[in-house]
Amino acid sequence: MANFTIGPLTICVAPAAIMKCAIGLNAWQFRRAYRGQPAVEAFCAHVCEYIMRRPDEIGLELLQADVSAQIARLQRAYTPRPPGVDEFSRLVRTILRSDAQRSAIVRSAERFTAWFEQFCASPYLRLAQRALERLALAGITLTRDGRFRNAYAALTPPRQLSTGQYVPWLAAVAVQMDTICDGPAPAIEFIETLLHEQIHAIIHERMRDNGEHYHRLPWFNELSAIALSQYAVAAAAADLRPALGFHELRGALRTSRAQQRWGDLAGVVMRETGDPLVFWRAWQAIFARGSHTRRNYAHRAVLPPILQAAGWAVSFPYHYGDQSVDCRDERVP
Asked: What DSSP string describes 94-126?
């Protein structure tokens, strides 16, 4: 097990931590299929919260035995049991018991540890530290202590193309290092992903709605995370040049945008506004509203005037290229 410090936060690299993230990230995808079924959603949350409380240094065999026993206890509490409870239990046990999965996790922990040792000995560590400082200077932090979420090195779940995720029950951001290490600019992509997921974590904490804000308007959440994370990385590089270089940064950020859903939208809007912090000002205005308005922030009577006051003179539907994005027409009670 190894912990790497980047400014105010810690990245954990350990086989048990990678296994815990594998379950947590798969569970988050599983849960989406059962939205609106409270018993299944609660079971997923209880299992994952228990798993995340297990020590990061625990052995994989002990983790399997511990979690399997807890799942059995939780299953007995559900009478009658919805089919989703047993389906999720089988998913978790399959992940825990897979010899191939365990071997891949152990190898990955060794690979990621070596990668972070090189990263922390390079100028990119200072770039990451300064980028986090840039977010903090703009007030983009968690509300409790003005800090950030710690992070786990994780593996990318099957059928996903992302480089990171924020899943609330991990109580940390997951940075999917297998995808990042195989990319064209791993150090920059790691920093951007770390910041991108911090943005999601910060918005989640401040909205206090168990993640419903994301489902109401995914494009706006992703646009905000892309614009603010790339702003922080680019501003940090400008602060540190010419001492540290980072000449490949602009091209790497452009490539990253091109690979992300709504990355093309982010590029258009960032050029149009010239001020990525417009999105943080908009979120601050949303956070300050009452609970009913926060729940309905995605409505076309609510979001456009907030964005316009923040500095983006926009109307909806907003067209870019041959695509468009829009607000919502229905209100939430």
From this structure: HHHH-HHHHHHHHHHHHHHHHHHHHHHTSHHHH
175 phi and psi, to 5 degrees?
-110, 115
**Which residue's entry shows tokens 């804000």?**
213
Full pLDDT tens readout for the chain, 333 residues: 899 999 999 999 999 999 999 999 998 888 888 888 899 999 999 999 999 999 999 999 999 999 999 999 999 988 888 899 999 999 999 999 999 999 999 999 999 999 999 999 999 999 999 999 999 999 999 976 779 999 999 999 887 878 999 988 788 899 999 999 998 899 999 999 999 999 999 999 999 998 899 999 999 999 999 999 999 999 999 999 766 667 788 888 888 898 898 999 999 999 999 999 999 999 999 999 999 999 999 999 999 999 999 999 999 999 999 999 999 999 988
Any residues with CB less than 8 A from the CB of 24 and at least 6 apart, and which?
48, 51, 52, 167, 169, 170, 174
**How many whole angstroms separate alpha carbon 37 and alpha carbon 46?**
14
Domain boundaries, the chain: 179-333
Got the DSSP string for 167-235? Answer: EGGGTEEEEEHHHHHTSSSHHHHHHHHHHHHHHHHHHHHHH-STTHHHHH-HHHHHHHHHHHHHHHHHH
What the block records as the tokens of 244 is 């540290």
Contact, 297 vs 327, CB < 8 A?
no
Cis bond upstream, residue 123 (ω within 30): no
Residue showing tokens 């206890």: 73
